[in-house]
TrEMBL record, chain A:
It is a multi-pass membrane protein. Keywords: Cell membrane, Membrane, Transmembrane, Transmembrane helix, Transport. It comes from the Bacteria. The lineage of its organism: Bacteria, Pseudomonadati, Pseudomonadota, Alphaproteobacteria, Hyphomicrobiales. The chain crosses the membrane at residues 66-83, 95-114, 126-150, 162-184, 204-225, 252-278, 298-316, 323-340. This is Iron complex transport system permease protein. The keyword Ubl conjugation does not apply. CDD domains: TM_ABC_iron-siderophores_like. Belongs to the binding-protein-dependent transport system permease family. FecCD subfamily. InterPro entries: ABC_BtuC-like, ABC_transptr_permease_BtuC. It is found in: Cell membrane.
From TrEMBL, chain B:
Part of the ABC transporter complex HmuTUV involved in hemin import. Responsible for energy coupling to the transport system. This is Iron complex transport system ATP-binding protein. InterPro entries: AAA+_ATPase, ABC_transporter-like_ATP-bd, ABC_transporter-like_CS, P-loop_NTPase. It comes from the Bacteria. It comes from Methylobacterium fujisawaense. Keywords: ATP-binding, Nucleotide-binding, Translocase, Transport. Residues 7-248 form the ABC transporter domain. One of its GO terms (molecular function) is ATP binding. Belongs to the ABC transporter superfamily.
């Protein structure tokens, strides 16, 4: 009962956090724009010629960047929560089970070999820009498909197999990406670093428009999954006994995660640990029930990535830190702590 | 009387890697009875239960609920008609005991009002003697406490399901395995109470004495086959115990009535007589 009545409060507070983080993100940067001027521009008072520069910075650079961060963060955190529920393992993360690294490998292939393949075919370069994110998206889907096929026998998906196969696939992708790094030139090396550590630096309205139709439907599907995932916590047979169409639920989760993570990597590179840290922190604060955990993960994931991006922009200004470094600095210790905490109590 | 039987299984066979785990088992389950499946390790008891609950598809044979083949019944509808208490369930996430119990209401209880749901939840917690554990994190409970929380969850599912399905089956897979004597008795009392209220209860028990005390009907499985069925007083004989379980412990009778019992003991050489 208490959980139910606290849910609106939790979501309200997190929504306020998202708005605050977004305002901060639009306000801070190489040029600092006070929040009241941000609000003036956003609320349509951009006609004032004195504000033209502010309006330009806000509307064409920072706002798309903030919105992209919000979507990518929400998508990654929800994907993490879905995977943890699906695998019944709080250590699952899209980046740890091969989906992100599959997308990253596809990006690396295109960065390093794309122009050579074009030259080989006698076609004029360079590659159209959209090839890279599209390739990354398909790479993520491909990695998921491989995992799914490996783990599925006669219509039933063994999630433990999928988890372990994902770790192996992640290691393989990492090795191949490393090999590509070895044969790349300086410019490609810089691009690879961007992809493997992630950045919101290249955010444009076009990227926002390309990501929204992929990530937003995933977020919209979230309210329909909580009940099934709660039952799945008891075990697959128990969930079936409780009336959950288990195989359909698993397929739905896998597809949603593949789409959201693929779109995130395509837009911002491989950003690790968001999907791990955000649901975990929320479980400590609001409990493990998925009906609240999933929407709360979306909100906190968005806020977390926006704030991580602010840190990435400010720490080494005017240069930018890859955002994946910021999230990993926060996330890796949390992961270790989680691991230690988990080994202790009930494992024999 | 024209209602089709609540649950019928015909010629169930499950073959895995060339071995029959369950072989040619046919049985009927009717409301108001408590049937107990017994048998040695590997006899196919749990496999049979999974077939009857729909968690496993047979290699051959059919299972039907109220005349409808089980594979044609959607999961949510089936969940209103039968509930299953698993052997043991561990949780990776620290759900509170009451939240675990409430999961039993989440699916089929959706149509109920908040007050009805709260009442069902409170009754189930009380009946399984876990009301005092409601706020505790499930993973921190002992095995026996976890089993009772799961029983409360199953009671919730049955009661919510009763608003949709008039006739129900409850499956219990070794429900007493981790319980102390008092809670073994309490759980089986509750199961017998549900049977008296018209629910068909099918339980797997290892303890033949508990089985003899509570079963209206005993089903003996051996090597995947149903080798005996009937009232415990008829089924449990010296000959059957020796043949199926491989021990020579003579079957006694409790002083009042004809309920059989087994007293484990050693022979003069200090071993279990086989």
């Amino acid at each position: 009962m208490s959980r139910r009545s606290t849910a609106p409060w939790v979501l309200g507070i997190l929504a306020a956090l998202v708005v605050s983080a977004a305002l901060l993100s639009v306000s801070l940067g190489a040029i600092r724009i006070p929040v009241e001027r941000v609000l003036a521009v956003l609320l349509g008072d951009g006609s004032d010629p004195a504000r033209a520069r502010d309006a330009l910075v806000i509307l064409s650079i920072r706002l798309p960047r903030t919105l992209l961060g919000l979507m990518v963060g929400a998508g990654l955190a929800v994907s993490g929560a879905l995977m943890q529920g699906l695998f019944r393992n709080p250590l699952a993360d899209p980046a740890l089970v091969g989906v992100s690294s599959g997308a990253g490998l596809a990006a690396a292939l295109i960065i390093v070999l794309g122009d050579r393949i074009l030259a080989h075919l006698g076609l004029p370069g360079p590659l159209p820009y959209a090839v890279l994110p599209a390739g990354a998206f398909l790479g993520g889907l491909g990695a998921t498909l491989i995992l799914y096929v490996l783990a599925t026998r006669s219509g039933r998906t063994a999630v433990a197999t999928m988890l372990l196969a994902g770790i192996a696939l992640g290691a393989l992708s990492g090795a191949l990406t490393g090999l590509l790094t070895f044969v790349s030139d300086d410019r490609q090396l810089r691009d690879l670093a961007f992809w493997s550590l992630g950045s919101l630096g290249g955010a444009t309205w076009a990227k926002v428009a390309a990501s929204a139709p992929l990530i937003l439907p995933v977020l919209a599907a979230v309210p329909f999954l909580g009940r099934g995932l709660n039952a799945l916590v008891l075990g697959e047979a128990e969930a079936f006994h409780l009336g959950v169409p288990v195989e359909r639920l698993k397929r739905a989760c896998i597809v949603l995660v593949a789409v959201a993570v693929g779109a995130s990597v395509a837009a911002a590179g491989v950003i690790g640990f968001v999907g791990l840290v955000v649901p975990h922190a929320l479980r400590l604060l609001i409990g493990p029930g998925h009906r609240l955990l999933l929407p709360a993960s979306a909100l906190l994931g968005g806020a977390f990535l926006i704030l991580a991006d602010v840190v990435a922009r400010l720490v080494a200004a005017p240069a930018e830190l890859p955002i994946g470094i910021v999230t990993a600095l926060v996330g890796a210790p949390v992961f270790l702590w989680l691991l230690l905490d988990r080994v202790r109590p009930d494992d024999v | 009387m024209s209602d089709p039987a609540l649950l019928t299984a015909r010629d169930l066979t499950v073959t895995v890697a060339g071995r029959d785990l369950v072989r040619d088992v046919s049985l009927g389950v009717e409301g108001g009875t408590l049937q107990v499946i017994v048998g040695p390790n590997g006899a196919g008891k749990s496999t049979l239960l999974r077939l009857l609950s729909g968690a496993l598809r047979p290699t051959r044979g059919t299972v039907a609920y109220a005349g409808a083949a089980i594979e044609t019944i959607p999961p949510w509808r089936l969940a209103a008609m039968r509930a299953v208490l698993p052997q043991a369930a561990r949780l990776a996430f620290p759900f509170a005991a009451a939240e675990v119990v409430r999961i039993g209401l989440d699916g089929i209880g959706r149509g109920l009002g908040a007050r009805d749901r709260a009442a069902i939840l409170a009754r189930a917690l009380e009946q399984a003697d876990v009301a005092h554990l409601a706020g505790r994190a499930y993973p921190t409970l002992s095995g026996g406490e976890q089993a009772r929380v799961q029983f409360a969850r199953v009671l919730c599912q049955l009661e919510a399901g009763r608003t949709v399905a008039a006739r129900q089956v409850l499956f219990l897979d070794e429900p007493t395995a981790s319980l102390d004597l008092r809670h073994q008795g309490a759980l089986l009392d509750a199961a017998a109470g549900l049977a008296a209220a018209g629910i068909a209860v099918v339980a797997i028990l290892h303890d033949l004495n508990l089985a003899a005390a509570y079963a209206d009907r005993l089903l003996v499985l051996d090597g995947g086959r149903l080798v005996a069925r009937g009232r415990p007083a008829e089924v449990l004989t010296d000959e059957l115990i020796a043949r199926v379980f491989g021990v020579r412990w003579p079957v006694g009778r409790v002083p009042e009535g004809d309920q059989p019992f087994l007293l484990p003991h050693r022979d003069v050489a200090g071993r279990t007589p086989t």
